[in-house]
Structures are given as C-alpha cells and as structure tokens.
Amino acid sequence: MARDRTPLRRHRRVLAVCLAALTVGGIAAAGTPVSAASPPKGHDVSSHQKSVDWPRARSRGAAFVYVKATESHTYRNPYFRGQYDGAREAGIVRGAYHFALPDRSSGTAQAAHFLRNGGSWSADGWTLPPALDIEYNPYDRRRMCYGLSATRMTGWITAFSDEVERHTGRRPVIYTTTHWWNTCTGGSRALAARHPLWVARYGAADPGPLPAGWSSWTIWQYDDGGSLPGDQNLFNGSLSRLRRFADGE
Predict the structure, then answer these.
(1) Is residue 176 part of a domain?
(2) Which of 44, 163, 223, 231 is catalytic?
(3) Does residue 9 sit within a domain?
(4) Is the pTM of this model over 0.90?
(5) Considering 85, 124, 135, 163, which one is annotated as catalytic?
(6) What are 175-212's pLDDT values in tens digits?
(7) pLDDT in tens, 25-57
(8) Does 17 map to a domain?
(9) In a domain, 34, yes or no
(10) Cα–Cα distance for residue pair 85/191, rounded to 1 Å
(11) Is-catalytic flag, 133?
(12) Which of 42, 74, 118, 221 has the greatest count of CB atoms below 10 A from its CB?
C-alpha cells in the first residue's frame, strides 16, 4: 500500500524486473487498457504523492482511487482532502482507507479516528466503501502480527469493522496479503465472509491463491509503481459494476 513513510521492508514481495510485460485480463504492464472490456484501472495514494495531477491520472485511465486518510489513532494525511476532492472533480470514483496499527490502540478507537477524518461513505455512486489496510508491521519486522494472537487479531478487526458499519452502513473492504491473513488471523473464514477483498500480489499473472475464506477478489493491487500515481490496482468487474459497488450494491 502507498505509505507516508518508508517501511522497514516489503515482506514476501515478488520481484518482476525480468518481465518485459505483465498482461492481466487485457491490462498491459504499462497500465494501458487494450480494450473497452478491460477491468477498470485504479490506484491508491497517500501523503507520499502529495499534490496529484488528477486530470492526468484520469487521462491515463484511472477509474478509481483509494486515498489514505489515517493511521493508528493519531495520524491524519495532511493532503487527504485535496486528494480526495481532487479525484472526484476529475471524474474518478474515490474512497478512503485507514492503515491499521493494532498494537497501538483498539479497533474501535482507530475506526472512530478514521471516521472523524475522512472515512465516511455515501450512496452517490462516486464513493467507495471505507477500506482497512491490515498487513505486515512496517515498524517492527520481528512482530509481523503486531504481537497479537490470531484470536486477538480477529477481535481487533471485528471491532474496527463493527464501528465502521455502525456509522456508514457498509462493512469495510479489507486490504491484505494471503500470507499475512492466513498467518495473523489464522485464515479467518468468518471475517472473510463479511468483507470485500482487496488483495496485494505483485509480479504474478493473477491475484491467487487468495486468503482463506475468500473465493473471489474485488480489487487486486498488482504493482507498487506504474502509469498512475502510487500503487496500481484493478477492479474485478466492469466500470458499471464499479459504480454499483460504490453505490452500495
């Protein structure tokens, strides 16, 4: 995921520097749609991208974007409002995400911080459901699961999700990797059944194998650099399906 700070390392990343092109469902590595039937392209940004040229991103094919709003229970992206509103003004479907640090405070507290600082949702066809970025600990690689057992981790995620749904009416999209989810939640199928999946897998021809509990993905982050600012994503469906997903379907 796009970071505000450089993490200690990106775990289990598959390097694809030897590939001349990556083609997935009609998308080339350069990020250019090759047909009208291609999956909608998207990206995600944080304060690292600062002032994004949204009309240029739109001209390069961006149909959707997730913007980092918050981290833990204190951090706020100082560029969030300009990025979030700028994307909408350029005709890009946008949503907000929260970077979880489960060892800092409760899921309820971090959800409340997120909701106060951009993590809202409205059924306007332009606002993606809130997203929870829950993955490797970027600040202590020895504590990949933040020192939490699988039971405590699933409890934390449940508390965050419940608070978001209570205020927005939507369960958050969960961004994660297969390895992290299976390791740190014990492959919780109960949680997976209640949330759309945004899976991260780089340098591969497809996003699978998926984390335990999911039989399909909604968004796939397939690279951390490309034609769009930030990380590169695909939506699993048509452009009209993307708009319906934003609308609450």
Answers:
(1) yes
(2) 44
(3) no
(4) no
(5) 135
(6) 999 999 999 999 999 999 999 999 999 999 999 999 99
(7) 333 333 333 334 689 999 999 999 999 999 999
(8) no
(9) no
(10) 31
(11) yes
(12) 42
